[in-house]
Amino acid sequence: MSREKAASQIRFETGQIKTLLRSYATLLEACSVKTPDLVEMTAAASVLHSFYNGVENIFRCIAREIDMHSPSGEHWHRDLLVRMAADTLDRDAVISTELRDRLAEYLGFRHYYRHAYSFSLEWSELSKLVDPLLGVWDQLRSELERFLDAIEDQT
User: Alpha carbon of 121 to those of 23, 28, 106: distances in Å?
Assistant: First the structure.
């Protein structure tokens, strides 16, 4: 197990997500005060997609470097998310079940986004993910810090 490698990669990916959200802060703020046009909605959808990709990069690293097993098969994305909210023999849960449930919505959107045309986006649905995004990020960051503290204490 390479806890040091995992910790380094987690810190890198959290930095990338932080940069993503900072880079699009103006867009996210604008979306909170007025209904975005199609271009703004498309950009916001891209941010959501990138956000969850970063989250999944973190979880895949933990599965690979600490659990020594990455889920596979048709439902590997969901299986990975579920696994991160569970204790294993090698680690405590990475995230809470509450956060798992919140992130499941972003996972679902990620799948939709990859297969849909951007002109079909509906703000009434997209806003359910954009509006709470920074709060979800804060919760994730906090839970990852707790996890990092735990694995670094074991090295």
Answer: 22, 16, 15
Q: What is the pLDDT of residues 113-140, one digit of tens each?
A: 999 999 999 999 999 999 999 999 999 9
**Residue 36 φ then ψ, to 5°:** -75, 155
The matching CATH number, chosen from 1.20.120.450, 1.20.120.580, 3.30.450.40, 3.40.1080.20, for 3-153 is: 1.20.120.580
This prediction has a pTM of: 0.94
Distance of CA 83 to the CA centre of its chain: 14
Q: How many CB atoms lie within 10 A of CB 35?
A: 10
